[in-house]
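User: Quick one: structure for sequence A, then sequence B.

Assistant: Sequence A:
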Amino acid sequence: MLRLCGLVAIGCSISLLPLPPHTARRIPRRHKYKGAFYCPNRQGFGRGGNNKSNNPPKSPAQTSTPQHQATMSNSPSISSSLSVENQANDPEGPKYFFQEKYAPLNVRGNFLTLCACPKNVELGEWLAHQIVEQYRLLHGMLQVIQEVNTVTGLPICNENTCPTMSAGRLTYTWLVDGRAAKISAPKFINRVEKWIVSKIHDPVMFPTEKVNGTPETSAIKEANGASTTPSDPANPDDWIGKSSGFPPTFYKDCQGIMKQMFRCYAHLYHAHWLNPFWHINKHDVLNMCFVHFVTVSKYYGLVSDKEMEPMQPLIELFIKQQRVPPEALNGGHWAQQAAT
């Protein structure tokens, strides 16, 4: 039976999805705030969605929707030109997930309460927490397509169904010996997960030792009568996380991690929304994780609009519905802090 790592059973609760074993040891410092901010009941979250039955839904009616494509680049993986190879997952197939009637969430509430940095938490610490939390949610979704079919002995996402890491007609490539190479989606996702875990476990990028001095938070700045304008990501002398021991490249590394996570979400939707998420009636859980991801990405400027183009119709729909809160747009964290 397919599983969603706790999300199937608890529905609206996003606080009980367990951390992957390989990230669990980062809890002592990086997750000391988790209990206070990830309880849906405390944050006004409730059950959402419109699926009243636990029975798998029938396939959606055949309709056509616009497709969006893009060419992107960055390491360790870069996107190639549009692929013209035949694939098991039809890139020309209808994109039901771009339609409003197929875009419910399994929770109700304002995702800003889950991503906005509290005044008593240093921004670098909070971003590190957000990165680990977003990987935790993504990992749960990836486990669904990695479930092995007992009949075929193959996972849902395998070398035959997904010979390339695609999102519609867009194909992402991985750097192999310094050259862009097309690899299967299972291999791509496996390398992304290993790369993210290596970053999270890097004591230089994600330091866990106690730092000397007091981290600079908005609350401390207000108490001292100093300006609460947050650190500019582009400022080489006052980078995000500096007072908490994070390296100057920390914010850029966070952007790289979130970009790779977005590419995994793009593949989940374009290649696997129908099978398995729609078939097991858990597309609303995938939507919840993705809305949370997009809110964090936009609020802190972690994924560019160009990178998000493969999912732009759905993102625009969530923005229109204000599931991605207005505060996450037009400057996000920096605009909100400057206005207070």
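Sequence B:
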Amino acid sequence: MSLKKLISTKTMAALAVILTAFASTSAFAQEAAAVATAKPVDMGPIYKSTLFYVLLFLLLCLFIAIVGKAMKVYELTRESEGKSEGINWDLVNGIIFIVFLLVGLYGVYWEYTVHGNMILPDAASEHGKKIDEMFNITLIITTIVFIATHIVLFGFAYLYRHQKDKKAYYYPHNNVLERIWTVIPAFVLTILVLMGFITWRSIFYKIEDPNHKPLSIEVTSSQFQWDVRYPGADGIVGLKNYKLITAINALGIDFNDKHNLDDQVADEIVLPVNKPVRFILTSKDVIHSFYLPHFRVQLNTVPGMTSYFEFTPTITTDEMKAKTNDPNFKYLLLCAKICGTNHFNMQKPVRVVSQKEYDEWVVKQATYLTNDLRKTFKLPLLADPAAKPAAADTTAKDTTAKTNQLALKK
């Protein structure tokens, strides 16, 4: 090739490179200017979509598959060339096991320190303290066993990985070891079960004290609400029958039972502190679950069956606000069964107050037996308090009119 032709070829190539670089720079500059002038794109909805994370997962799988294939090609190439093994995969797998162990132990620490602060505050009932003690004991034991077994599991995977200069020792079984790992778990589980049984009996089998009778409150569940009935002045919640349910008598109250005549209804549950409360639980339609998390209370409400739960609240709402440092704190009654579309909204506020506050509150609550129900069931009507002032005014007007008439006659 002549020098002139070589110069010409190289010159043309250089010019082509310069032109390409200039065009690319111009294109990048225009794109950057367009991006700078365009409105920022809100990526929030994309990050919240399920499809985004599915595609991200598939992309990760594809990346791992490509790396795996590349490594396989590398190994086959070395093998075809008669070279020694390039990567000791047994060592790599052993190291991965140790990494998983360390990450897992950090995850346990993170759960305890971060999510551990999100658990419920101290139990607000007498029996709740016993349940919390059982929970803590069980959690401590299982955490110790979990950490110890996983250290052994992943540690053995690393220490006893396959090595060419080592041979596994045949060790079929050991009677002493088998007795140890059978007897110790059986003993621990027996203790935990006995603790649970004793606690359960102390909650559901109470000795009635005639001097300290519990306050009875009936709660009826239905989709998707709680109906609360207080016993009234006689202290007894009256009987009801599902066959008596009508549009006007939604709970099926049996008014042949005189104890129903003074029963009261409320939009919230108010409990006196340090006084036993006995909930009478029923359901009108499907199975619900009467759940008071702060009191450690949960019991299913089943159609056609009456359940009971008795406990003693020990912390008022105001005291719990101070303990949690949350001025908006409130106790809630929730449903712990997925009972339908509005299950999430099946809530009822609960307040724990002093006995004096409770007495002042309960006398203000209306009775279930309204005048409309009295008419339906042919019971004596009560005078309407709102009509009394009007009646007084009418009497005054009549007296004035009669006086005026007498004056005119004279």
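Confidence is low (pLDDT under 50) at residues 1-7, 388-410. The radius of gyration is 39 Å.

User: Thanks, that's what I needed.
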